[in-house]
Input
Amino acid sequence: MGVIKAAIGDGVLTFMWVFCVSTVGTLTGLISSALRVQALPPAVIFITTFLIFFLVFVFSAIGQVLGGASFNPTATAALYAAGVVPDSLISMAFRFPAQAAGAVGGALAIMEVMPTQYKHMLKGPSLKVDLHTGAVAEGVMTFIISFLVLLILLKGPKSSIVKTWLLAMATVTLVISGSAYTGPSMNPANAFGWAYVNNWHNTWDQLYVYWICPFIGAILAAWIFRFIFPPPPTKQKKA
Output
């Protein structure tokens, strides 16, 4: 029952995440235009970073309410591989499909409610280079974000606000860096949701670039993090 509950929580949270995070580009444009700073790249980047910070902060709280729900399969895998969460392969076998289904629902829902004049901004991640270059880029960026997430959450500042801001800055930096390659996504569920909307979810390209390589990057990041910061030895109880 716990596995089913976790999967449902992940599906609900991922639905809400994809629905909300897909509006960041539109909201950034509207806010920067209202403040008349759209010609100032640093100001636009700050607005985007603040929006991501707000969403991550809110969704972290919602995830806790839902019993530790997650909206990113690679984050779930990295935390498991690093030994941070007491998850299992069976649990993840249920959670990952639920996250993907939630992402599809979120992408379809935002497409329905987004005003027509802004729908062109709802594209989702897409491959902009050749297949292998894109796969390597997505894997490397997922490796970096996974390592930084572990570093910030487990070894970073105690303040949850500062941690969230650092996560937002790291995310926006990688999104900008990877925009000419794969989007990027760094979240297989999110990529799958938009691939479903654009009818290429069942292709090898989507599986290779947005699932296989990101998982390799996330798990490798977790193993390296665990090597650099080994967990404390378990104390054995004396008989």
